[in-house]
Amino acid sequence: MFCKIGIFLLVAKLSEGLVLPRQAASNAPEQIRISLGKDPNSMVIMWTTMQALNNPLTVPQVVYGVNPFYLKSSSNASINKFVYSGGQQYIYTATLQNLTPATRYYYQAGSTEGWSLTWNFTTFPSGNNFPYTVAIFGDLGNKDGASYPFLKQGAANNQFDIIFHIGDFAYNLFTNDGKVGDEWMREMQEIMATKPYMVIAGNHEWESDNMNFTHYRNRFSVPINNAYNDSQFYSFNVGPVHYVGVSSEYYFYENVVPLVNAQYQWLVNDLKTADANRQNQPWIIAGQHRPYYSSQKDDSCCNEVVENYLDYFMKDGNSTVPGLEKPYIDNSVDMVFWGHVHSYERTYPVANMTAYKDGNPYHNPKAPVYICTGGAGNQEGHTGFTHPPSPWSAQRIDRFGYTLLHVYNNTHLYMEQIDANNNGTVMDSVWITKDPGFQRNFW
Ligand SMILES: [Fe+2]
């Protein structure tokens, strides 16, 4: 009887992802998160302890393997003592290399001074022609995070394979001496520890803290591929998609000219290379925090009715810095996702304020399609609409939620907007399709 109960408990723990030969201790890891490494066969594991390890000789590491009862491989972690206004913590980073494609790995993070529970993730298949789903959203707060339960359930049920959080975390990572960031990342652990969590910074990562995005830079890892070792802009490939993370914040931050120009140089080069590589990654999708096509209420992004300097600055640039739209048009970017305004909006294919609506505009689109998915949920509430839809606005809904982008193959994407205010139903959807080898001839 005892034995049966023991087996039952073990199985129950396994079903929760909790197996474990090792016990948690006072210095146990927390806030475990994973992200894609530079090498497609790698995964980066990060975690935090609030105290330093007791013994300076203790080696933090990740132990991992395909058998949850036998984590036979290990990778040592670096330690970053992260000191910030009001506090400090220790952040560990380990990179698991040479992983087998399409394989579930189990892992524990920590050291002999305390181990995490056992978590798992699944690597993507090899090559570039496989289907998967990416969850995309911005503006997810520590309070009133309407999408949180759906994302948590979605991660547990493998409804998506990777996440792209396009700015504004926790509200804010630095608030209350970083404690809000810690609370949010503890809550997000069940999602972040199992699905690669790719990020780009928003205004809440720098606004008012005067700390130069320091929590964003220290708490997250992205596969940086720029010469500036800057995690604010980077790109990566998953299957048939080339993703580009772009900082809209550099257009609003101090010292605008050198930062924007550095990013722009990198961006043009990256997009040109990607556009010449369509045979491998036919899709190019960008993510940036703030929109420049938005018919929503927030005047600080790009409402065409309320024309102000900031609206067109990020879109078109000025005499000192270039804007973002031209390289997106020139290099035939397929979709751009952004947030910042806390509602949903889908555009028609649009370039230079002109919408292309004839026929099925989403088949062989003549210009980029923009999706505002900044309504994951936070204490600032809905942005709302105060103006009629702009001519390029195809759909807008003032509800919280997030995007599921189903990447089917080289010719078909299917986008669903999940309604977190209505039990996770689909509030909008669209197929983006193109003929094999389609080349946009915008000009
Ligand atoms: Fe924002």
UniProtKB/TrEMBL annotation:
GO terms for molecular function: acid phosphatase activity; metal ion binding. Residues 1-17 form the signal peptide. It comes from the Eukaryota. Residues 367-429 form the Purple acid phosphatase C-terminal domain. Residues 29-123 form the Purple acid phosphatase N-terminal domain. Keywords: Glycoprotein, Hydrolase, Signal. Its EC number is 3.1.3.2. SUPFAM superfamilies: Metallo-dependent phosphatases, Purple acid phosphatase, N-terminal domain. It is an enzyme of class 3 (hydrolase). Belongs to the metallophosphoesterase superfamily. Purple acid phosphatase family. InterPro entries: Calcineurin-like_PHP (IPR004843), Metallo-depent_PP-like (IPR029052), MPP_PAP (IPR041792), PAPs_C (IPR025733), PAPs_N (IPR015914), Purple_acid_Pase-like_N (IPR008963). This is Purple acid phosphatase. Pfam families: Metallophos (PF00149), Metallophos_C (PF14008), Pur_ac_phosph_N (PF16656). Residues 133-344 form the Calcineurin-like phosphoesterase domain. It catalyses: a phosphate monoester + H2O = an alcohol + phosphate. The lineage of its organism: Eukaryota, Metazoa, Ecdysozoa, Nematoda, Chromadorea.
